[in-house]
Design brief:
Helices cover 47% and strands 19% of the residues. The protein is α+β, with helices and mostly antiparallel strands.
């Protein structure tokens, strides 16, 4: 028990240190840009505004991701029937233009997979997984497969993507905050390093399981398992159309 407590404290300390570093970075960049602008009053103001806007957006994204991570760890949400297949369809529709821009095809299939949970958080989980699979894919002709199913009392969501080969150690650390895996660097749309940490936190808050398996041909298989709800068509499953689309948060770790 003491060892577990010490490990948890050490993990929290690492997270606090990493979060402080990540939050400090956009602030330092903003200060540098403003200093340069003060020293060079003839500098193009439009370019400065654009760069400051990008840096500010990153800071906001990181702050929102940290708040979401805190919220899921506290389990402060109501549970209701949620169909993972509907969430998969909504996340795919939201991210399809992004996938097309990066030359990635998305295939979605599967049956109704009802569970009890937060529609908002589970949509965020699905969106993060799909966004991660798109970002960390092959540069050309990549693909993502999204499937849902109910097996042995578990509602399952599986996201499979092509991509670079991963070693066993990077796969084990992908769900740690601010980890992006071996030879992974931030790119446009790549996030701030909290994507899978948020996914793992949402899964824990729903008492589920999260399994990451590297593919021998490159890429990753991510499977989320949640307790299945009764397949009762009278259950008031909320339609994706009445929810605000989730934004991809933080990229794949």
């Amino acid at each position: 028990m003491l060892a577990r407590v010490e490990a948890q404290v050490a993990e929290q300390q690492r997270f606090a240190a990493n979060a402080s570093h990540e939050l400090r970075t956009p602030l330092a960049v903003t200060r540098t840009l403003l200093d340069v602008a003060q020293q060079d009053p003839d500098r193009d103001g439009a370019e400065l505004v654009e760069r400051l806007s990008v840096v500010n957006a990153r800071a906001i994204e990181l702050t929102e991701a940290l708040l979401l991570l805190s919220r899921t760890d506290q389990r402060s949400f109501a549970r209701e029937p949620v169909d993972l297949s509907l969430l998969a369809e909504e996340a795919t529709e939201t991210l399809l233009p992004f996938a097309e821009k990066r030359g990635v095809t998305i295939q979605i299939a599967g049956a109704v997979a009802l569970t009890m949970g937060s529609p908002t958080l589970l949509l965020q989980l699905t969106t993060n997984l799909l966004h991660n699979a798109i970002v960390h894919n092959l540069p050309d002709h990549g693909s993502v497969q999204v499937t849902t199913a109910v097996e042995d009392g578990s509602a399952r969501l599986t996201v499979v993507n092509t991509g670079a080969e991963l070693g066993p150690e990077p796969v084990r650390t992908l769900t740690e905050p601010f980890q992006r895996g071996a030879q992974r660097v931030r790119s446009d749309g790549g996030g701030v390093g909290l994507g899978l940490a948020i996914v793992a936190s949402i899964v824990r808050a729903h008492d589920g399981t999260l399994t990451l398996t590297r593919r021998s041909s490159g890429g990753l298989v991510v499977t989320v398992g949640l307790s299945a709800a009764p397949q009762d068509h009278n259950l008031p499953v909320r339609s994706p159309a009445v929810r605000e689309p989730a934004r991809p948060m933080s990229g794949q770790e």
